[in-house]
Amino acid sequence: MADDVLGAALPLPVPSPQWRDRLATRRSAPAQSLIAPGPSEAELNDILHLGARTPDHGKLFPWRFVILSPDARDRIAQALTPLAQQQPDPGKAAKVLVKLTAPPVTVLVISAPIAGHKVPVWEQELSTGAVCMNLEHAAGALGYSASWITDWYSYDPQATALFGVRDGERIAGFIHIGTLTEPPLERPRPDMAGKVTRLG
């Protein structure tokens, strides 16, 4: 992807039925069902650049990406296995590790807020969440399915250390990307009448 040109005029939005339909049918994929092919290195770079175009009050870029190779994920999953036995439901904790190892491509998104800045940490964390969603949309734009998940190893301090999470950082999510052999099924959606208030 070409470098962004600072100060260049960007195109205004135009109606896009394809984009609207994509948003109307967006559905996270089951991570354990994602198989090859996944994005190539060039496609992954494209996905990362698109994902990084997120709202970011203060232009702080309060997040970072870690590309987890299949070998790295297998190695970490082995190290997580004994930690799973310390979880409230050890069987389930061990079973979900397949979500970490099965997909062909995984991007770990780490929230790295700048403490003491005038932009509240909460807003910086919201920017990180927007990055995760952008990565899903970017993967979909390239024809791949994606899953944004966390699971217990995103919160256990011994587990997060295995992913290189630093002091003051938190795991925002694992964005798993690949191909589905069957379409995902629709899930319950909110009743918008109960979620929308209009102030006149």
Describe the structure in your own words.
The chain is of the alpha+beta class and 200 residues long. Helix content is 36%, strand content 14%. It has seven helices and four strands. It has helices at 17-24, 41-51, 70-84, 90-95, 97-101, 121-141, 157-162; strands spanning 63-68, 105-111, 145-149, 170-178. A four-stranded antiparallel sheet has the order 1-2-4-3. The longest helix has 21 residues, at 121-141. The radius of gyration is 18 Å and the shape is globular.
Strand element count: 4
Describe the sheet with the most strands: 4 strands, antiparallel
Terminal-residue CA separation: 44 Å
Average pLDDT: 96
* Form type: globular
Strand order of the largest sheet: 1-2-4-3
Instruction: Provide the gyration radius in Å.
Output: 18 Å
Task: Specify the helix fraction band.
Answer: 25-40%
The helix/strand order is: HHEHHHEHEHE
Count of runs of 4 or more consecutive helical residues = 7
Q: What is the structural class?
A: alpha+beta
> Which stretches are low in confidence, meaning pLDDT under 50 for 5 or more residues running?
none
DSSP strand content: 5-15%
List the helices and strands and how they pair.
Blueprint: H1 17-24, H2 41-51, E1 63-68, H3 70-84, H4 90-95, H5 97-101, E2 105-111, H6 121-141, E3 145-149, H7 157-162, E4 170-178
Keyword list:
200 residues; alpha+beta; globular
